[in-house]
Fold this sequence. Notes:
It is built from nine helices and ten strands. By secondary structure, the chain is α/β, with parallel strands linked by helices. The chain has a domain at 1-79 and 190-247: P-loop containing nucleotide triphosphate hydrolases (Rossmann fold), CATH 3.40.50. The strands form two sheets. A six-stranded mixed β-sheet has the order 6-7-8-3-9-10, sandwiched between helices. A four-stranded antiparallel β-sheet has the order 2-1-4-5, covered by helices on one side. The protein is globular, with a radius of gyration of 19 Å. The protein starts with a strand and ends in a 9-residue tail after the last helix. The model has no long low-confidence stretch (mean pLDDT 92).
Amino acid sequence: MIRFVGLYKSFGSKQVLDGVDVAIGKGEVFFIIGQSGVGKSVLIKHLIGLLHADRGEIYLDDEEISHLTERQYYRVRRRCGMVFQHSTLFDSLSCIENVALPIRKHKHLGRRKALVEAMKRLEQVHMEEFAWTFPAALGDGMRKRVAIARTLTMDPEFVLFDEPTTGLDPISGRRVDTLIRELADKLHVTCVVVSHDLTSIFAIADRIVLLYKGRVHILGTPAELRASTDPVVRQFITGSAQGPMES
C-alpha cells in the first residue's frame, strides 16, 4: 500500500534520511524503530506532505505522491489518520463531543446524527461507557483511545501512530496495543507505528524496520529481530549503553 523509494532528507548539514527504501502492506501493523533523532517521525511526515524529500519517491497504491501540491495532498490526508503522542482533545468538550466534532465538520451532519456516529466510534475503542465524561477526568490511556476513535471518524485506510504508548502505564499501554491490532485485524486499517516500546513492538507488529544512520538497517518480523545477532539490533533490544549506536 505504501512505498518509500530512495528517500533522502537533510536539515542544513544534518543528513536525516539517507536513501530509505521501505514497503508497507495493506492491513499491516508496521513498526518504525530506532534511536532518538534517527528520522522515524520525519519519515512518516513525508507520507502526508508535512515534509518534502530532497530526493526519492513515495507511492500510495502505486500512485507517486511526493510531488503533489498542498491542495492535491488533501485527498491523501483524507485517507489517513494521525494519532499523536499527546491526545490533543478539547477539555471543554465531552468525549463524545470531541469525536463528533470532525463528523460535523467534514461530513456535514447535524448534532444528533453526529453524536450517534460518534458513539459507534467510541464503541469500537471500548469507551462508550465514558461518552459524556470530560477528558480531564480520564487517564492518559483512556484519552488516547478517545483520540483514536476521533481519528476513525474519517474512515481512514491507514493510521500513523507517533509513540502511542509513551507515558502510559503498562496496563493502559497494552490496551492501546490491543486496539491497534484490532484496527488491522477487524477493520483492515494499515497501522504505521513509530515507537520505542519493546513490549508493543514484539507483541503486535507484523513487521519492523530499524533505521540507523538514516538508512534501513534491518527489516523483518519480530521473530527475525529477536534472532538477529547484528550488534546494532542487539543493542536496541537490550538497551545497552555501549555499542555501535554510540559510535
